[in-house]
């Protein structure tokens, strides 16, 4: 799996990006939003999110395989029916694993289980944080950014403002007075474009705000004060 991942990352993002991907995944596991937000390579950021889905499926298949192996071992365990001493000797000489083999097998199972648990936990964190968003022009998550929000405008007012354009999900909101902004996503690119056309001419809190769809993340400087919003 590491070889496949290296080949995919090297061919698409360059050899130096593999370490960046690892750092990004580590940051996701530690919930370090700053590193995630400041990632300069948006394509790599989206790849990490997509890769998490692949990881989740791999973990599921690994767990399924382990369960099948356990059932297979249980089914193949010989019953304690009477038999001749010679047949017992033959079976023990051909089928019984050595103590070292049993120890290595148990250790391998423990390692696989631990790896699966870590991977599943990382995927779960990645999905819950919702911080890795595809900002490419053909994104289905359709980010919309509202700039220049006055400090006096509360998040409920921002939600109401954006909701006029349709069903949305907030991603992040900054209440920093010098860099007030909100980031939302709509159900489709068409809906996002319609939201921009409709909302960009409307006032928010008695002041004009700028509404746009952009393909950047870092210029928002989200290391400022932020609040996670739940729909």
From TrEMBL:
Keywords: RNA-binding. One of its GO terms (molecular function) is RNA binding. Pfam families: RRM_1. Residues 73-108 are annotated as: Disordered. Residues 73-102 have a biased composition (Low complexity). CDD domains: RRM_SF. The keyword Ribosomal protein does not apply. Residues 142-216 form the RRM domain. It comes from the Eukaryota. The keyword RNA-binding applies. Gene3D superfamilies: 3.30.70.330. This is RRM domain-containing protein.
């Amino acid at each position: 799996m590491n070889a496949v991942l290296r080949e995919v990352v090297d061919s698409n993002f360059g050899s130096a990006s593999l370490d960046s991907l690892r750092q990004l995944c580590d940051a996701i596991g530690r919930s370090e939003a700053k590193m995630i937000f400041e990632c300069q390579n948006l394509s790599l950021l989206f790849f990490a999110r997509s890769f998490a889905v692949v990881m989740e499926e791999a973990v599921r298949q690994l767990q399924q395989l382990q369960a099948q192996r356990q059932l297979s071992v249980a089914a193949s365990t010989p019953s304690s029916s009477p038999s001749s001493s010679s047949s017992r000797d033959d079976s023990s000489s051909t089928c019984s694993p050595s103590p070292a083999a049993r120890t290595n097998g148990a250790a391998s199972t423990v390692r696989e289980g631990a790896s699966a648990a870590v991977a599943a936990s990382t995927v779960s964190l990645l999905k819950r944080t919702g911080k890795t968003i595809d900002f490419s022009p053909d994104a289905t998550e359709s980010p919309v950014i509202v700039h220049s929000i006055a400090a006096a405008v509360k998040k409920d007012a921002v939600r109401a403002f954006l909701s006029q354009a349709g069903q949305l999900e907030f991603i992040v909101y900054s209440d920093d007075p010098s860099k007030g902004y909100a980031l939302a996503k709509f159900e489709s690119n068409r809906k996002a474009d319609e939201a921009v056309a409709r909302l960009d001419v409307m006032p928010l809190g008695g002041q004009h705000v700028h509404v746009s769809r952009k393909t950047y993340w870092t210029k928002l400087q989200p290391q400022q004060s932020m609040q996670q919003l739940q729909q």
